Amino acid sequence: MRTLRLLLLLLAASGTALAQTAAPDWATRPALAPAPDFAPPAVERFALSNGLPVLFVEKPGVPLVQVNLLVKTGAVDDPEGQEGLAVFTGDMMDEGAGDRSALELADAAEFLGVDLGVGAGLHVLRVQLRTPVSKLDDALPLMADVALRPTFPEADLERLRTQRLTAFTQRRDEPRAIASVVTDRTLYGDDHPYGRPLAGTPEAVAALSRADLVAFHDATVRPERAALVVAGAVSADEMMPRLEALFGAWAPGAAPEAGVAETDPVAARTVTIVDRPGAAQSVIRIGRIGAARSTPDYYALQVLNTILGGSFTSRLNQNLRERNGYTYGAGSSFSFWPTPGPFLARADVQTDVTASALTEFFNELNGMLATVPDDELAKARNYVALSFPSPFATVAGTASMVGSLFVDDLPDDAFDDFTRRIQAVTADDLARVARTYITPEQMAVIVVGDRAAIEADVRALGLGLVTTLTIDDVLGPAE
User: Fold this and answer.
1) What is the pLDDT of residues 14-35, one digit of tens each?
2) Please, are residues 72 and 225 in contact by the beta-carbon 8 Å criterion?
3) Among positive and negative, which fits the CA dihedral 456, 459, 461, 467?
4) What is the pLDDT of residues 340-350, one digit of tens each?
5) Would you report the helix, strand and coil content of the chain in percent, each value rounded to 5?
6) DSSP string over 435-457
7) 85-92 vs 210-220: helix crossing angle, rounded to 10
8) How far, in Å, are 369, 388, 396, 413 from residue 39 at the CA level?
9) Residue 273 pairs with which residues in a beta bridge?
10) CA dihedral angle for residue 350, residue 351, residue 355, residue 357, rounded to 10 degrees
């Protein structure tokens, strides 16, 4: 009882103190402090005896090392009629390599406690290893076998082919995947690498042979296209002899071919509705061709997109989610590739508000053409600048960032003035890039949803020529 009385006295006293505390002023936001300076880690460059570049960052502390082999190849190198070859090749490279089977490779990696994987995208194939320093000498040979000596076993190839063909069937029930296929095809066309599905088509994947994968690997996974990136608690003097022993004899060949041709943006706004009868939501994608990574507008576009749809407090999310409750989330993005990638605004909305959501999308897109207020600009600049150091906290993130110097052909000091260049973006800069890249009258609008429920209202908006498709029109007949 004595303890209980003491507790009640303490609660009463704390309640009195709280009552005497002034209520917070929720109408006034705290002032934004300037982003602090950030010094990215220094990148050292070396080369093996065969000319293979090595980008090296020593990162003391946690005893881990990340080693990435980056090869400038991917779906952009898929031959016509063999769409999906690069991705399939990457997926197969760790399904048996050197004298180990797929299971033996997996067992060896698990025993060592290392992460070893391969993946191919549009422009880059990556072989990635993260290992404790103590296991480096055992793990690196595994990585070298996967990169240079994959065996592409027939049994595992057929297993992965079956998985991929099953995924193609499942894609028919995934409206976001359908929207992605239609968007890429609308912006770039069937004949452009960016307009084709990254994973290919059922017909192409069904026809791929082991010989096709071997030929693709031998032709494209070459040292003249590649670089090694190392980040971790190891010195260059310790690391370079190990890399030389495993990768130095990799013989270079001919120089890589020219890159991907640019494509003109859509000339006039169009609307494509893909019918999913009975769908409870409409998947909306609004886009056009944007900018390459090499554009001098890169920094202004980072800030612009943060304001429009690149953060939770962006205009699109505040409008469609917070004010109107149409969606769980709305946003936008620029894909900065060697050749201009897409700009996309996106949301999944309730079916009955599809037309209203489209109206709000274009209200915000048009709104970006007006002068951005100083406080909103300052907040966006700080958001980008303060987010920039985050990847450098880990060896994997550091290696990824340093690898982008090679992939995007950037100078080694590209990160040194990132924060300064973001903070230098002005309202005039935003107005200029908005006029160039946010062109509401030249956008492709893709809506995947219940045509019977949404078509009349969407047509009534008068956005542009409306085309309707079925899922069979997009993905082909179901098997």
Assistant:
1) 555 545 556 667 777 777 666 6
2) yes
3) positive
4) 999 999 999 99
5) 45, 20, 35
6) HHH--GGG-EEEEEE-HHHHHHH
7) 90
8) 34, 11, 18, 11
9) 447, 468
10) 10
